[in-house]
Write a structure and sequence with these properties.
Radius of gyration of chain A: 19 Å
CATH class of the largest domain in chain B: Mainly Alpha
CATH architecture of the largest domain in chain B: Orthogonal Bundle
Oligomer: heterodimer
Distance between the termini of chain B: 57 Å
Number of helices of chain B: 13
CATH topology of the largest domain in chain B: MetI-like fold
Strand order of the largest sheet of chain B: 1-2
Structural class of chain B: mainly alpha
Helix content of chain A: 25-40%
Strand content of chain A: 15-25%
Largest interface: A-B, 30 and 21 residues
Helix content of chain B: 55-70%
Shape of chain A: globular
Distance between the termini of chain A: 20 Å
Radius of gyration of chain B: 30 Å
CATH superfamily of the largest domain in chain B: MetI-like
Strand content of chain B: under 5%
Order of helices and strands of chain B: HHHHHEEHHHHHHHH
Structural class of chain A: alpha/beta
Largest sheet of chain A: 6 strands, mixed
Largest sheet of chain B: 2 strands, antiparallel
Strand order of the largest sheet of chain A: 6-7-8-3-9-10
């Protein structure tokens, strides 16, 4: 298989050790033989994937290949869709979350999600970030204020909004709103953050900031990111999984996938022969 | 094409330039004319309805000239047209609307929340939704008959059970006093329950619309942050739909003020000089709390009923009285709609969309 030219070799995200020693990180998420159906229509076929702790895993593939569906099964958001059915096991921190006895509310507190289109609540910036802890039961104003400040700092938004925490979140720009959504997700203190194309609706400058943010966050959180943008996947992730028509074709370290993939389909997608 | 080659082309290939400005094309002129005629027809429709409204209002104000004065709203009804006033009707309507709101808001908003947020789409739920739309069109006198059969008869039974009175304990300053409250069959609560039935379909429909207008992304984001479904509804969905819900509630209530037919079916008094609970002025709401407890179980009359009664009088001097009554009713409706606008404005501002 011909080596892909240097134009595709991913530059390293600043400060992040790209060569991830897989043996040193235990798995945060392990999906085993996952089959997913919308009614009678099957969208995921026997998907098995391991996501190591404190790393960034990118899910790539053409439109409609099931990567967003797979992402949503990881915090059981697909339960909201009527008629959806899931077979198989997903182990998050060693526990099978497909078990009906699992408290999904608790699960979603620990597995946060950032959506493609930023959806701030029509409330103030403070109330947006404090919403997660509040519904979990935190009432102490001082604790909430500290939490809001630390999360906004982690999301690299504090300096821009610290003077106007009580103004509406809708007054922020698109990139700021997305960072607010990330801060909101961080406020529930999750272990795992799922991101569904977080920068696809943003301009390049905001995209750059979000990608740097991901690089900083992955030291403390496990991140799974779905992206259409292969260059973005190659920039931010340690591990990449390639989905095609509901099947997981190939998974492996990002450097390997983008320079010498094992499967022909993967190589075709990466070199742009389809997609 | 280059100038050197133009001489070699046949004449038919060279098209004359189009003059966009002359308006010479008659097909286009006709279409433009039709378009303008349509716009004028719409203007005519709008201004015609406005003109009819203005004429009606002017006629009413003109008719009311003889009687419209401040003592009209401070006097109660009397056989002397120069002294007849609307106080009993105003108070009756006040109590009616108060209790109608108390009954219809929880039931209406709760039903809308259930139908939109909680119920799974099943055959039964779909039947309910379709029938709610039908119920909004049922003539209100049908609800009057229903109210008579169910609510008034229940009140009669209760009244007889308690020998015409009910005893309630009232916390006085240092001790509990027992009070006798006379229960009338045709009391305010019965009227309020019937009016609740009348406006409930529209309250539910307006609340459903308001709930539907909240984007589903808000709900999904809330659930993804680890909120339960009830927390999502209470903290996100209801506050976001509050402007629409409050507008719907207030407008439905203002419709209820104008309803006479169901109340007459129930036996509301046509001629009375007594306000419910004998409360004549707003101060008495505070100074005579015992009467405040009596009022909901007391007989009543309402503004549209008094207007109807005056318009039926053979004495032509009562025309001015009836017209004054209509003016007062319109003022009250205007006040309520203004409240609706203000509430909606403040609720939207707090919402920070």
């Amino acid at each position: 298989m011909p080596a892909i030219t240097s134009g595709n070799v991913p530059p390293s995200v600043a400060g992040v050790d790209r060569e991830l020693d897989m043996t040193a990180h235990s798995s945060a998420i392990e999906a085993r033989h996952l089959n997913f159906f919308y009614g009678e229509h099957q969208v995921l076929f026997d998907v098995s994937l391991t996501v190591p702790e404190r790393s960034v895993t990118a899910l790539i593939g053409p439109s409609g290949c099931g990567k967003s569906t797979f992402l949503r099964t990881l915090n059981r958001m697909n339960d909201l869709i009527e008629g959806s059915r899931c077979q198989g096991e997903i182990l998050v921190e060693g526990q099978n979350i497909m078990d009906p006895a699992v408290d999904v509310v608790l699960l979603r507190k620990h597995v946060g999600m950032v959506f493609q289109k930023s959806t701030p609540f029509p409330k103030s910036i403070f109330d947006n970030v404090a919403y997660g802890p509040r519904v979990a039961g935190e009432k102490n104003r001082a604790v909430l204020a500290d939490l809001v400040e630390s999360c906004l700092k982690k999301a690299a938004l504090w300096d821009e909004v610290k003077d106007r925490l009580t103004t509406s979140a809708m007054s922020l720009s698109g990139g700021q709103q997305q960072r607010l959504c990330i801060a909101r997700t961080l406020a529930t203190n999750p272990r795992i953050i799922l991101m569904d194309e977080p920068a696809s609706a943003l301009d390049p400058a905001s995209t750059d900031r979000i990608e740097n943010l991901i690089g900083e966050l992955c030291a403390n959180y496990t991140i799974v990111i779905v992206t259409h943008n292969m260059q973005q996947a190659s920039r931010v992730s340690h591990q990449t999984a390639f989905f095609y028509k509901g099947k997981l074709i190939e998974t492996g370290p990002t450097m390997k996938i983008f320079t010498h993939p094992s499967e022909k389909k993967t190589e075709d997608y990466i070199t742009g022969r389809f997609g | 094409m280059s100038p050197a080659n133009s001489a070699s082309l046949p004449a038919s290939a060279v098209k004359p330039a189009i003059n966009f400005i002359s308006g010479a094309d008659r097909h286009i002129r006709r279409r433009l004319l039709l378009s303008q005629l349509f716009a004028w027809a719409c203007r005519l429709a709008t201004y015609a309805s406005l003109a009819i409204l203005v004429v009606l209002l002017a006629a009413i104000f003109y008719s009311s000239i003889g009687r419209l004065a401040w003592d009209f709203v401070t006097n109660t009804n009397s056989t002397n047209p120069a002294k007849a006033g609307m106080l009993a009707g105003l108070w009756g309507s006040f109590w009616l609307i108060l209790f109608t709101a108390i009954f219809s808001i929880p039931v209406g908003v709760g039903s809308a929340v259930y139908l939109e947020e909680i119920a799974r789409d099943s055959f039964l739920v779909r039947i309910i939704k379709i029938n709610l739309a039908n119920l909004a069109g049922v003539p209100s006198i049908v609800y009057g008959i229903l109210g008579y059969t169910v609510f008034r008869s229940s009140a009669a039974v209760l009244s007889r059970l308690f020998d015409g009175h009910c005893l309630i304990g009232v916390m006085g300053l240092f001790k509990i006093r027992l009070m006798k409250l006379p229960i009338y069959e045709d009391n305010i609560l019965v009227g309020a329950l019937t009016l609740t039935l009348v406006i409930l379909p529209t309250v539910i429909a307006a609340s459903q619309e308001a709930l539907r207008s909240v984007p589903s992304s808000i709900r999904v984001a809330s659930l993804a942050l680890g909120a339960t479904r009830w927390q999502t509804i209470w903290h996100q969905v209801i506050p976001a739909s509050l402007p629409g819900i409050s507008t719907g509630v207030i407008l439905s209530t203002s419709r209820a003020i104008g309803e006479a037919a169901p109340l007459i079916m129930l036996g509301a008094l046509t001629y009375t000089s007594m306000c419910p609970g004998s409360i004549d002025s707003p101060i008495e709401l505070v100074t005579r709390p015992a009467q405040v407890l009596r009022a909901p179980l007391d007989q009543f009359t309402a503004m549209p009923i008094e207007i109807y009664d005056w318009s039926k009088q053979p004495d032509s001097r009562f025309t001015a009285v009836a017209a004054s009554g209509i003016v007062v009713l319109l003022v009250v409706l205007l006040a309520i709609n203004s409240v609706a606008m203000i509430v909606r404005h403040y609720a939207s501002r707090r919402l920070r969309w």
